[in-house]
DNA sequence: TCAATTGTAAAGTGGATGCTTAACTATTGC
DNA sequence: GCAATAGTTAAGCATCCACTTTACAATTGA
């Protein structure tokens, strides 16, 4: 119910980049190494690392290194935080529009010519 | 189903700022003028205008001017686009985790000691 | 009519973002 | 051991972003 504003900043910021969304998309289909994440992206490994770091500090992704391979996966709680902020706003204005609709319906019943 | 990447960039970018989220939050409770949007925000009207412009080009908000007052409202289709991108990703990994759970359950039935 | 209100436009500024390249470390397979 | 693989760190750079200030325009109410 209570949203940490700073964390929402980071999450939406993280999702605002096509490369990072691609990475999230890839990870939603299963865990992957850094180079696997980099493979479809037209940029250096170093750049991918920087995107990954942002995804981690935003809480959308976590990773751990075993041997020389770092394996990344989705952090389930992450996306739901962003999603729920949006859906709470949406339900607020949907309820409001409903009440407005009711009001207008009632109006036209009482004063059909107005 | 098909997401315009550039528009998603703009939407998530728009939501990545606390001032703009406040504006969306305010508008989800009903339409408002530019100065009403500005009132709780600790910045110049000019700055609020610039945030508003971003919200408009991202498709989250629309506005129209009557007399000297510009009235702003939520664009219903806007938020749902961002929301649905997230929820599609979520359902992908949720399905995957389900399958993984099934697999592990089957494993432990066949090889209870492994 | 004229002053207050409401909004716009333009230019400037400091700091964040999204890369790059280069140099380096740790692990693995032969 | 040693070359290839996988990742990490740091520095640098162009561009974008979130404001500000200043000046201006249109509308309204007394």
How would you characterize the overall build of this protein?
2 copies of one chain form a homodimer. Chain A is about 65% helix and about 10% strand. Chain A is α+β, with helices and mostly antiparallel strands and about 110 residues long. Chain A has a single domain (about 5-110), classed as Winged helix-like DNA-binding domain superfamily/Winged helix DNA-binding domain (Arc Repressor Mutant, subunit A), CATH 1.10.10. A 3-stranded antiparallel sheet of chain A has the order 1-3-2. In chain A, a hairpin with a 2-residue loop joins β2 (about 60-65) and β3 (about 70-75). The interface of A and B includes residues 30 and 82 of A. The structure holds a DNA duplex (30 and 30 nucleotides).
The chain-level mean pLDDT of chain A equals 89
Number of helices of chain A: 5
CATH level 1 class label of chain A: Mainly Alpha
Total domain count of chain A: 1
Describe how the helices and strands are arranged.
The structure is a homodimer of 114-residue chains.
Chain A: H1 5-15, H2 18-28, E1 32-33, H3 34-38, H4 45-57, E2 61-66, E3 69-74, H5 76-110
Chain A binds a DNA duplex (30 and 30 nucleotides) through helix 4.
Domain HTH arsR-type (chains A, B): 1-94
Organism (chains A, B): Neomesorhizobium albiziae
InterPro entries (chains A, B): ArsR-like_HTH (IPR011991), HTH_ArsR_DNA-bd_dom (IPR001845), WH-like_DNA-bd_sf (IPR036388), WH_DNA-bd_sf (IPR036390)
């Amino acid at each position: 119910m209570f949203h940490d504003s700073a964390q929402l900043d980071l999450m939406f910021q993280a999702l605002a980049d096509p490369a990072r969304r691609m990475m999230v998309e890839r990870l939603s289909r299963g865990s992957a190494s850094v180079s696997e994440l980099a493979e479809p992206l037209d940029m250096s490994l170093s750049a991918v690392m920087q995107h990954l770091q942002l995804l981690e500090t935003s809480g959308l992704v976590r990773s751990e290194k075993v041997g020389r391979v770092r394996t990344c996966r989705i952090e389930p709680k992450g996306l739901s935080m962003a999603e729920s902020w949006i859906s709470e706003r949406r339900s607020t204005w949907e309820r409001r529009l409903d009440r407005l609709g009711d009001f207008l319906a009632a109006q036209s019943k009482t004063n059909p010519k107005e």
